[in-house]
Design goal:
Number of strands: 8
Number of helices: 1
CATH class: Mainly Beta
CATH topology: OB fold (Dihydrolipoamide Acetyltransferase, E2P)
Strand order of the largest sheet: 1-3-6-8-7
CATH architecture: Beta Barrel
Length: 166
């Protein structure tokens, strides 16, 4: 049995994006802070910080759409991530493997753009390719400046690029 959950919160930092020949991974931290009315005032509870991970086309869409501070709703699978650091110490953290996510329209407006779909062998596959325990912690300085092949794409003009409807 799988544990699926939904979260509502704000993106806490920049999206980290990494990719390889047949895989993509986006990762970001999300702050979930409950609030309620007590008396005549709003009260905030303790903030829960959660790592959200997405793969495949969803990772590319996250890279291109999600920014620090954005209010999001995330639906996904709860996963227990275990790893060993360089000193050999074991660590454990819960993460969300995002199945669906989007901007919280109760808190603002958003525009939806359907990108051209790129096929992948790992469409529904693992978040991380076989043999790689965890993707590198380093993310490109500005992932939006990188083309899908990892090369700098500063010459591209997004205003003149053609898109094909799907």
């Amino acid at each position: 049995m799988e544990a699926q959950i939904s979260l509502q919160g704000n993106v806490g930092g920049a999206v980290e994006f990494t990719s390889g020949p047949d895989w993509t991974l986006a990762r970001f931290r999300m702050a979930c802070t409950p609030s309620w009315r007590k008396g005549g005032e709003w009260v905030s509870g303790d903030t829960l910080w959660v790592t959200v991970r997405a793969s495949g086309q969803t990772a590319v869409n996250v890279r291109d759409s999600v920014r620090k501070g954005d209010p999001l709703i995330v639906v996904g699978r709860l996963r227990n991530h275990i790893w060993k650091d360089v000193e050999g110490k074991m660590h454990e953290a819960e993460q969300i493997e995002a199945l669906s996510l989007g901007h919280d329209l109760a808190r603002g407006v958003s525009t939806f753009i359907r990108p051209a779909r790129v096929s992948s062998r790992y469409e529904d596959g693992p978040l991380v390719p076989d043999g790689l325990a965890d993707p590198p912690d380093e993310a490109p300085e500005d992932p939006a400046d990188l083309a899908e092949d990892g090369q700098d794409d500063d010459d591209a003009d997004p205003e003149t690029e053609e898109t094909t409807p799907v």
